[in-house]
Amino acid sequence: MEKKEWKKILLGFVSVSTVLLAACGSGEETTETNSSGGEGESTTLKIDVDPRYSEYVDEIIPAFEEEHNVKIEISERDMFDGLEALPLDGPAEIGSDVLIAPYDRVGVLGQQGHLAEITLPNDDRYDELDQKQVTLDGKIYGAPFVIESLVLFYNKDLIEQAPETFEDLEKLSQDDQYAFENEKGKNTAFLANWMTAYQYIGLLSGYGGYVFGENGTDPTDIGLNSPEAVEGIAYITDWYQTIWPQGMQDATSSENFMNELFTSGKTAAVINGPWGASGYDDAGVNYGVSTIPTLPNGEEYKPFAGGVAWAVSKYSKNSELAQEWLDYVTNAENSETLYELTSEIPANQEARTVVSESGNELTKAVIEQFDSAVPMPNIPEMSEVWTGAETLIFDAASGNKTPQQAADDAVQIIEENIAQKYQD
Asked: Are residues 256 and 323 in the same domain?
């Protein structure tokens, strides 16, 4: 996924939540019809497709239309445009039957009555982690489609192999070759955009911190200020205060700062998502990709398990046909086609195994890192975490607050916002 698309997702966590809460549907059951072409019944299935998947969907549509004797009607638009339109277009019966949503939105949309409950095929195409991504309160609201995870990119012209531990990264950061010329004593050998919650929560999780208790389902138990999380925050703070230049603390430009130094050969390794690869390719960087190094406590970095799923509108009158489409679009054969046409990694386990053997380092690293990832909480209260934890690391890194104070204040904001918006 390109960086600009991912930024839309991060912004969408909050913006979509606001729209959907304001326009929440009643959740009443809709009338199902069998869309196989019977008398008086619709033979058209309307599907929202994000532009980056258009070529893939166009490729597989003909076989589905022939098998089911139906017509697929495509609405090509940004994923979040479709999500924002759903609460209004659905009840007005002008919306699509099928759409795509980020994993963390699936459960929320289902709980609010906008997505239909579906079933997943019993063919081992998904493991437990995949199923958790689209499940809330025991109900399944989506079919996993694409997976993503943070990984480590490293410059093969600067270092022979990927660092395996954060101790390796610390040693690398003592190399004067990567001294930052504008700030004495600062070093840019390794960089990570830990100003962003999506990026740093994986480190806190590796230390034993967590967002919500009960596997991300209990918003009354927030673990971002637990002793384990604070230990992780203190470790991050040390990088900002003793190693990295001031530019890394600017939340609005730190990502660009990091990428500019990496593409100019002044940084040997960075943590980023697969969306960063296109920029590195354009810059001609001879990069390798690996899983994120082991943390100082010996544990794995545990980023959020990202990705998107196919889902069925609760307002659809073609729910049975829509279910058939979900089964079809995510089967092994079509999932391999997805990878061939888009390079995005399929959620389907069989296809994932096949593409992992393609020899592509990025693909292999994302799949391996995904195994240590944790499901992103998909309850409505998660939107308050992005807001409340937005300045947590900056507050600690700048020295304005201690790691404990920064964490406590962030959690207090999250708790207050949840109490105001979600609790009676």
From this structure: no
- Residue 246 and residue 115 share a domain: no
pLDDT value of residue 424 = 60
Q: How far is CA 121 from CA 206, 324, 327, 412, in A?
A: 32, 10, 7, 42
Q: Give the range of the structural domain holding residue 45, as residue numbers without chain letter.
A: 3-148+305-356
Residue 142 contacts residue 347 (beta carbons within 8 Å): no
Q: What is the pLDDT of residue 2?
A: 44
**Token digits for 387?**
């807001």
**Residues 186, 144 within the same domain:** no
Long-range contacts of residues 182-189, Cβ cutoff 8 Å, at least 24 apart = 182/245, 183/245, 183/246, 186/243, 186/244, 186/245, 187/243, 187/244, 188/244, 188/245, 188/261, 188/266, 188/267, 189/267, 189/268, 189/269
In a domain, 363, yes or no: no
Contact 305/144 with Cβ under 8 angstroms?
no
Q: What is the pLDDT of residues 320-351, one digit of tens each?
A: 999 999 999 999 999 999 999 999 999 999 99
Q: Which residues sit opposite 140 in a β-bridge? A: 135
Statement to judge: residues 259 and 217 lie in one domain = yes
Strand positions, DSSP E, 40-176: 44-49, 71-76, 98-102, 135-136, 139-140, 143-148, 151-155
Residue 36 CB neighbours (<10 A): 13
pLDDT along the chain (424 residues), means of 10: 45 42 40 42 85 96 95 95 92 94 93 96 94 94 97 98 98 97 95 96 97 95 98 98 96 95 98 95 97 98 96 96 98 98 96 93 96 91 94 97 98 97 77
CA distance 164 to 189: 15
C-alpha–C-alpha distance, residues 229 and 76, integer Å: 42
Total domains in the chain come to 2
Closest among 394, 407, 372, 373 to 223, alpha carbons compared: 407
Bridging pattern class, strands 143-148 and 345-346: antiparallel
Q: What are phi and psi of 335, to 5 degrees?
A: -65, -35
> 128 and 242 in one domain?
no
Residues 163 and 184 in one domain: yes
Specify the pLDDT at position 338. 97
Pairing outcome for strands 190-192 and 269-272: parallel
- Rounded CA-CA distance 2/375 in Å is 21
184 burial level (CB within 10 Å; 0-12, 13-18, 19+)? exposed
The answer to whether position 126 is within a domain reads yes
The answer on 202 and 270 residing in a single domain is yes
